[in-house]
Amino acid sequence: MDKVVATAGEAVADVADGASLAVGGFGLSGVPNVLIQALHERGVGGLSVVSNNCGAMGTGLAVLLAAGRIARVTGSYIGANKEFARQYLSGELEVELIPQGTLAERLRAGGAGIPAFYTPAGVGTQVAEGALPWRYDGRGGVALASPPKEVREFDGAEYVLERAIRTDFALVRAAKGDRHGNLVFNRSTRNFNPLAAMAGKVTIAEVEELVEPGAIDPDAVHLPGIFVQRVVALTPQQAADKRIEQRTVSG
């Protein structure tokens, strides 16, 4: 099946207000910027986003965040994104912060059809006991807090139950992809992209290089096409547009 869609705008045309999105990337690495920009241009809002962070340096999900299009974020990292912190602390944005490894496994479990799993991460903390601020009231108080989670003992150790994540859509970026949706990620871009792709009911991939089926060695495929429904081929200019968050030079 040829899954190639002509434009990013066409690929996200059915993403409606209030949709949930799993979005790949970490910082500026492997972020599906072209698909995110297409969503911004459509004007959809009230989105629930699952991503490690919510954009940086005014790019990626930060574009949607600044426009007030995101209602809820499930992630692990606020970092230096001042607008993310401002919206969270002012009560404009609901935020579920969870351990990074737990986030990765919740996405993977969703794609694997596993409804929930037990993990030691968070035992004895508010992650398990509840009362983590999900939404502030804008006056320094908590308007909505996380509920307690089930804790169970296995072989003398305690583990907390975490539910899998499934989203309406997933947006990812790959270095190479074929028309069947098989994807290859380059180095650190193979961060949350495969996991986000697995969690989405409809997964849309922007690829820097589009090749014909059979051009990718099966052993080189990082994510099989069964998890991908739509593929958008980037232009050379779009593929080369990669910003650096922190530049390090030697003297």
From TrEMBL:
UniProt organism field: Streptomyces yokosukanensis
Pfam families: CoA_trans
Gene Ontology molecular functions: CoA-transferase activity
Family membership noted in the UniProt record: Belongs to the 3-oxoacid CoA-transferase subunit A family.
Keywords, in A-Z order: Transferase
Lineage, highest ranks first: Bacteria, Bacillati, Actinomycetota, Actinomycetes, Kitasatosporales
Database matches in SUPFAM superfamilies: NagB/RpiA/CoA transferase-like
Protein name: Succinyl-CoA--3-ketoacid-CoA transferase
PROSITE patterns: COA_TRANSF_1 (PS01273)
NCBIfam families: pcaI_scoA_fam
